[in-house]
Design brief:
Elements: H1 6-23, H2 29-46, H3 54-101, H4 105-116, H5 121-128, H6 132-150
Helix pairs in contact: 1-2, 1-3, 2-3, 4-6, 5-6
Length: 154
């Protein structure tokens, strides 16, 4: 078998580096180089004289093979990671709901006004007709309680 020309190897390296950077898959760089060589060899097998430039044909073969590999491996990994994240998020939300159900109505109101409505402690105190220092105390103690129940440390 003939050796792969240096310009083709350079092209495979460039395409692999660009796509690694684009998709954030630097850990697959060597695999992409291999896929580029496979694409080149397949393009040589399928090239028909008189149907265009062999350089263009092999370039397309290289790019297509590398892109196929990325689509198969990168996107599949992303989907698995997204599914795992959704499962973790759903579990966390269920646990958070359980923990919130254990809070007093005052603690829930303080959290709601502070987190959802983004009110200051003084405005919350005015709405609830209590001292703003007590609102501050309730807010931070409630967060502490939730963190403890959920096993979250900050």
């Amino acid at each position: 078998m003939k050796e792969i020309p240096k310009e083709i190897i350079n092209e495979i390296e460039i395409v692999s580096k660009v796509l690694c950077y684009k998709y954030g898959c630097e850990y697959l760089y060597e695999d992409l180089l291999q896929e580029g060589v496979i694409g080149y060899l397949q393009a040589l097998k399928t090239f028909k004289k008189g149907k265009g430039s062999i350089k263009t044909w092999t370039s397309l073969g290289i790019r297509n093979q590398i892109q196929k590999f990325i689509n198969k491996n990168i996107y599949q990994t992303q989907r698995i990671n997204e599914d795992f994240f959704i499962i973790k998020e759903n579990y966390f939300c269920k646990e958070l709901k359980k923990s919130i159900n254990n809070l007093t109505s005052l603690e829930i109101k303080v959290l709601k006004y502070k987190i959802i409505n983004n009110l200051s402690f003084k405005k919350i105190a005015n709405k609830l007709k209590i001292d703003y220092r007590k609102v501050n105390f309730i807010y931070f103690n409630t967060l502490k309680k939730l963190r403890k129940e959920l096993g979250v440390s900050i």
